[in-house]
Design a protein that fits this description.
By secondary structure, the chain is mainly α. The protein is built from 14 helices and four strands. Strand 3 and strand 4 form a beta hairpin. The longest helix is centred in the C-terminal third of the chain and has 31 residues, at about 340-370. The protein starts with 8 loop residues before the first helix and ends in a 13-residue tail after the last helix. One of its GO terms (molecular function) is ethanolaminephosphotransferase activity.
């Protein structure tokens, strides 16, 4: 019995009819990574459950986040005159990031190898991917930091939102077309990030202070690449794929309102969190950037997971995520100064969001495991006695 039945009976019926459909045209992925993953998966024992591989990879990203939080909680360690993150931490960060990326690539191959592919596996994989966005963005931020040589916390906040919306675009595409077009930026970014961690361990963070050309710094390149990739590759490709489906009359939602409904809750989340940032009496983003990013990234993951459930079950997307309802008074209490200790309010709300998201995830996994008669983290059959 699930903790709470978030998945409706109509959605369970939709999951029964679900067939995986994805397109991966990235040359790096097709010609380099997939052959590498096909090689790696041969070394995995056949009793190892794919979801366990997925979860292990995700936990390596969480470990990176926690490790950097310990050595650079407020994103100042990379600045001149501050105690820098030890080199061995960057070595581990690079190794863990690439390991997480590799495990994310082999989990599906392990599922096909062991004949254990289920809709739960895909949902679990993409659900954790949506939460992983905040962990790798925050970890990368520690390379540059927030002071003179780095990127401002407000700038990083908007960069985070560019990454989050780039992620949800792929699932919006699938909600409308039935096909998951895997974004090119993901594979390139994961390989690049892993290499940058290792390079940082060797040359030190001081290297990133130097201009590449004239006054154009590495931090500017970091910002430019993320924004440029999103607006010149990810967004145009998503719109083109949806327009193609519209012209071929295979678009699932004919009205504009229904087609763009999945963006309502993410946009409202962006508005609420930005109101808090802009009108915060204590400048909360300057005080607690890591915690604020974590809150936003987790709330976004919760919204995205509900969209993934809808697109996989071929049901209508929720107009409004319930998590936004209590967030509204929290933001009001913060910006009006009714709660004097804004940092405490943020910590409490972040804890509530994380617990709510974990509860949602556990409930959905339990519900789908029960529905399909499987164990989430084992290939053994459940005991029905």
């Amino acid at each position: 019995m699930a903790l709470y039945e978030y998945v409706t009976q109509d959605q369970l019926a939709g999951f029964d009819k679900y067939k995986y459909s994805a397109v991966d045209s990235n040359p790096l992925s097709v010609y380099v990574m997939h052959p590498f993953w096909n090689f790696v998966v041969k070394f995995l024992p056949t009793w190892l459950a794919p979801n366990l591989i997925t979860f292990t990879g995700f936990m390596f990203l969480v470990l990176n986040f926690l490790m950097l939080a310990f050595y650079d909680f407020d994103f100042t360690a990379s600045a001149a005159g501050h105690e820098h993150v030890p080199s061995w931490v960057w070595v581990l960060a690079g190794f863990f990031n690439f390991l997480a990326y590799t495990l994310d690539g082999v989990d599906g191959k392990q599922a096909r190898r062991t004949n254990s592919s289920t809709p739960l596996g895909e949902l679990f994989d993409h659900g954790l991917d949506s939460w992983a966005c905040i962990f790798f963005v925050a970890t990368v931020y520690s390379i540059f930091g927030r002071l003179e040589s780095g990127v401002g916390v407000a700038t990083l906040y908007y960069i985070l939102w560019v990454v989050l919306f780039s992620f949800i675009l792929s699932h919006w595409e699938k909600y409308n077309t039935g096909i998951l077009f895997l974004p090119w930026g993901y594979d390139i970014s994961q390989v690049t990030i892993s290499l940058v961690y290792l390079v940082t361990a060797v040359v030190g963070v001081e290297t990133w202070y130097q201009p590449i050309l004239w006054h154009f710094l590495y931090r500017d390149l970091f910002t430019f690449m993320i924004i440029a990739c999103s607006f010149t590759v990810t967004l145009p490709m998503s719109l083109i794929n949806v327009l193609k489906a519209h012209r071929s009359k295979t678009l699932k939602h004919s009205s504009l309102y229904e087609a763009f409904l999945p963006f309502l809750s993410p946009v409202l989340l962006f508005v609420l969190s930005t109101i808090w940032v802009v009108f915060s009496p204590s400048r909360i983003l300057e005080l607690q950037p890591r915690m604020f990013y974590l809150m936003v990234g987790t709330a976004f993951a919760n919204v995205t997971c509900k969209l993934i459930v809808c697109q996989m079950s071929n049901t209508r997307c929720q107009a409004l995520s319930w998590l936004l309802l209590p967030m509204t008074p929290v933001v009001v209490l913060a910006v009006t100064g009714v709660v004097a200790n804004e940092s405490l309010l943020l910590y409490l709300w972040t804890a509530a969001v994380i617990l709510a998201h974990i509860h949602f995830g556990l409930s959905v996994v339990q519900q789908l495991s029960s529905h399909f008669g499987i164990l989430a983290f084992s290939l053994k059959k459940p005991n029905t006695d």
